[in-house]
Amino acid sequence: MTEELERSFEDTIARDQRLEPRDWVPEGYRKTMIRQISQHAHSEIIGMQPEANWITRAPSLRRKAILLAKVQDEAGHGLYLYSAAETLGVDRTELTEKLISGAQKYSSIFNYPTVTFADVGVIGWLVDGAAICNQVPLCRSSYGPYARGMIRICKEESFHQRQGYELLMTMMRGTEAQREMVQEATNRWWWPSLMMFGPPDADSPNTEQSMAWKIKRHTNDELRQRFVDMSVPQAEALGVTLPDPELSWNAECGSYDFGAIDWNEFKQILKGNGPCNAERIAKRRAAHEDGAWVREAAAAHAAKQRDRERSAA
Amino acid sequence: MSEVRKDWPLYEVFVRGKRGLNHVHVGSLHAADDRMALRNARDLYTRRNEGVSIWVVAAADITASSPDEKDPFFAPSGDKVYRHPTFYEIPDNVPHM
Asked: Shortest CB distance from B4 goes to which of A80, A148, A300?
């Protein structure tokens, strides 16, 4: 019986069809999918914080409205993804508890601080740009609910990246001090953005299995290279210098060579030693705990309404 | 008074993209009651005019078949090819068919 189920699972993947919630899948596939989707969801939720930091101090009403809409989108993306994760038989509350207890991770990028308003722009340009590079191939993930969620998310991310780049163009047309802010923010976010694609292929033991299951369509290094090649002309058009002296065009490969990434910094942040790890989790925990009475009150109200309807009938 | 559930139940959300189209499943959410489910569905799934009408259904109320096309549940339609227009051979010189 199990053999037959496995064959049907492998067949679905080989025919490039999607797996759907009630299909039988091997335990390893389910676990990997739950881990990937929930970490992605957590990243969207924690990702609200660095930018929300600037909502009250946005320099104009226009920028404030844009930033609010963007942060609301991040919340929405988190919810689409929790919804997809739940189709695999996990509970949303349980996932939130795993996030705030540190049992599950989120993207290391959100553990860096947003020091100036230019960081908001650079997050849109580079961090969301890297996210798009990562996410476009995930629209073809073998797990249907995840793939459909990613399609919605990718459509909305395009606004995120463009508003960031436009913000930076505006600052670059401003004063010398503003241009300096953009350059400094670029210096802060460039290397962490490259780390978003994960460890180099040689140190990424799960890649092979994920590619076979069509959960992942490209390796970390392939996507990182694609991102570098896309970003260089964007930096030139903006008038900023990417902080990598080794960055140079390689005519033979038709792509840019770039310097070595400090993977030790990446590992430290994953371990929880980044500049904002503790702050991000503390804030999420406080929101969850402070909101408990609202969730309980709404449930009590709903129960009371149901009782009233029943006795009226 | 019935027992108060601390965890809000799961609702499935269906959106009609525009007039003339069917409602299509777009995802799920949690809400304390039907009204909250509808309001949250609007905020979550139609932030960019994606729909003109929303249905929310408590997930517990849905009865579903297995989605696998080869499931015996769909067998009755599997061998009724005559339900498809391509089953019938019509000469090329007959117009508008």
From this structure: A300
* Residue A279 one-letter amino acid: E
Tokens of A172: 């670059």
Partners of B1 on chain A (C-beta within 8 Å) are 303-304, 307
pLDDT tens-place string over residues A115-160: 999 999 999 999 999 999 999 999 999 999 999 999 999 999 889 9
Q: How far is CA B37 from CA A94, B31, B41, B42, in A?
A: 20, 5, 6, 9
Q: Tell me the three state secondary structure of residue B7.
A: coil
Q: Contact A130/A196 with Cβ under 8 angstroms?
A: yes
Contacts of B36 in chain A (CB under 8 A): 298, 302
Domain residue ranges of chain B, discontinuous segments joined by +: 2-63
* Torsional sign, CA A224, A225, A230, A235: positive
- List pLDDT tens digits, range B51-95: 999 999 999 999 887 655 455 565 566 667 777 777 788 888 887
The model's pTM is 0.90
Report the range of poorest mean pLDDT among A188-202, A203-217, A244-258.
A203-217
Residue B1 pLDDT > 60: no
- So what's the ipTM on this one? 0.88
How far is it, in rounded angstroms, from Cα A203 to Cα A184? 31
Q: Are A235 and A186 in contact (CB under 8 A)?
A: yes
Where are any strands of DSSP class E within chain A? 248-250, 255-257
Chain A residue whose CA is closest to B48:
A156
CATH, domain range B2-63: 3.10.20.520
For A117, A180, A183, A236, A240, the CA distances from A177, given in Å and listed in that order, are 12, 5, 10, 19, 13
CB A241 within 8 A of CB A185: no
Q: pLDDT tens across B3-12, in order? A: 445 679 999 9
**Residue A255, SS3?**
strand
The three-point CA angle B1-B5-B6 to 5° equals 130
**Residue A79 and residue B64: Cβ atoms within 8 Å?**
no
Helix (H) and strand (E) counts in chain A: 14, 2
